[in-house]
Write a structure and sequence with these properties.
Among the domains are: 94 residues, no CATH class; 107 residues, Immunoglobulins (Immunoglobulin-like, Sandwich), CATH 2.60.40.10. It is 43% helix and 19% strand. The protein contains 16 helices and 15 strands. Strands 8, 9, 10 and 13 form a 4-stranded antiparallel beta sheet that branches.
């Protein structure tokens, strides 16, 4: 029993979570940083501009969920074309395997939306609050009118860009010109308002606050990337043999005379890293392959009159064996890469051929199950069918329907169906045949639906004719 005269023992609460220190990436210039901005501009021009591009009197790319039609330039895709979505997902997975095996996380470093928007938000932050030392000093300073003004300006620009991003995203599902007109008159629908705000808040939170946390803890790609790596995968690597032992030194004295490697331990590579890691510790899942540390280290090497490439794109095998660039390129053509490439480009070619030869007409046939067969007054056997036609082009068409496959099989009259551009329609068709010597049961027949002005637009579909 505890002694009631003694005060209760207080057990301190120990947190199992250690929050990461905020990362303040330092601005840097260089070859790879310029390439990052090239890809940032390209991706954003496509994203923000493509939805405004007119095409055949409509938006060039529009995913019209209400009408169940997807417009992609000259292609009009319907729910029946879901196979192309499946192929697109397979191609994306194969591309991920292929490019990651060859060159590591280049996608993450140069074109991933999280990386691109984080870079844009950081650029805005640097223009308003200053570079790394100024931002650290500003965050540590007590609140003042100046600090409040800088923070409000930064977040105001962030919010405007985020809302415009959300608006553009919704503009791929609702015609963006109609969306803009509705926004100007404050007449957006509930769902349109929700998705503009949802995507805008997601952009604001991910690029403005979560930043490297998305790459380190949430993105699944960072967790399984090493499964696709091998010793010949191109990565951002620190040449430990050349750089160690590291340490500060005078530029006037040769580093070898001081027993030092080329690394002067300036930590610039850490300061420019958007995820806050030290690349000198080796390959880490937090590394997104952006090469900011390469640009920073090369500038330091130039100042010290040392050769560039202390941090560079290389492979584990190349670092161990001191291989040349030609050897790295030659070893990139290994069986694993060749297999991925063969499958990827074969599937890509097949998909391109399928789209190029795609007939802009779709036909679905259903037989009337209420009555398997009916005998007409002329003694003919009649089956009824329902044909669902889809004009998958952006011009009106007229289609003639004929039937074949059995002796004497015919339609009661010539049948033509006219459909507007990118529209669907249904027609009921009676098919008749003389009993003759046909046995009872099911017999195969063929429906031919052909454009009356373009014989190349023809679809042949099989069906079954029931004889009593």
């Amino acid at each position: 029993m505890p002694d009631p005269r003694k005060p209760p023992r207080v057990i301190p609460i120990q947190s199992l979570f250690a929050s990461d220190a905020k990362v303040y990436p330092r601005s840097i210039s260089g070859v790879f940083q310029r390439w990052r901005w090239v890809f940032a501009w390209l991706t954003q021009i496509v994203f923000y501009g493509l939805c405004w591009l007119p095409w055949n009197g409509r938006q060039a790319v529009l995913f019209d969920l209400d009408a169940r039609r997807f417009y992609v330039f000259d292609f009009v895709l319907w729910p029946q074309d879901i196979i192309y979505l499946a192929v697109l997902l397979v191609l994306s997975a194969l591309a991920l395997f292929l490019f990651t095996t060859v060159a590591g996380r280049l996608w993450c470093g140069y074109t991933c939306p999280q990386t691109v928007y984080t870079e844009i938000f950081l650029w805005i932050e640097q223009r308003i609050e200053g570079d790394r030392p100024q931002r650290i000093k500003l965050d540590a300073a007590p609140w003042s009118v100046r600090k409040l003004g800088l923070k409000a300006s930064k977040h105001g620009v962030w919010l405007m860009l985020s809302l415009w991003t959300g608006f553009t995203f919704v503009g791929y599902f609702t015609p963006i010109r109609d969306l803009a007109a509705a926004a100007m008159t404050l007449s957006l629908s509930g769902w349109e308002t929700f998705w503009v705000l949802f995507y805008g808040v997601a952009t604001y939170g991910n690029a403005g606050f979560m930043r490297e946390q998305m790459c380190k803890y949430i993105c699944p790609y960072a967790q399984f990337q090493f499964v696709m790596f091998d010793p010949d995968t191109l990565i951002v690597a620190y040449d430990e043999t050349r750089g160690e032992p590291r340490g500060g030194r005078s530029k006037k004295v040769a580093q070898r005379d001081q027993g030092l490697g080329d690394c002067i331990d300036c930590s610039i590579c850490v300061q420019v890293c958007p995820t806050g890691i030290d690349i000198r510790d080796g390959l880490q899942l937090e590394c997104i392959g952006c090469a900011a540390c390469i640009d920073a280290c090369d500038q330091v090497m130039d100042k010290m009159d040392y050769p560039r490439g202390l941090i560079r794109y290389s492979t584990e095998n190349a670092l161990k064996t001191r291989s040349s660039r030609s050897t790295i390129v030659r070893r990139s053509m290994r069986p694993r890469v060749l297999i991925y490439s063969a499958v990827f480009f074969s599937l890509l070619a097949a998909t391109a051929w399928s789209l190029a030869t795609r007939v802009p007409l779709k036909v679905d046939i259903e037989r009337d199950r209420a009555a398997l067969a009916v005998e007409t007054s002329e003694g003919l056997i009649e089956n009824a069918y329902r044909l669902q036609l889809i004009n998958a082009s952006e011009q009106p068409r007229s289609f003639a329907i004929t039937v074949h496959g059995l002796a004497g099989i015919h339609l009661p009259e010539r049948l033509e169906v006219s459909l507007p551009a990118a529209a669907s329609g249904a027609v009921t068709v009676q098919v008749r045949v003389e009993p003759g010597e046909l046995s009872g049961g099911s017999h195969p027949i063929r429906f031919t639906v052909a454009d009356t002005s373009d014989p190349q637009v023809t679809v042949v579909e099989e069906a079954r004719f029931w004889m009593p």
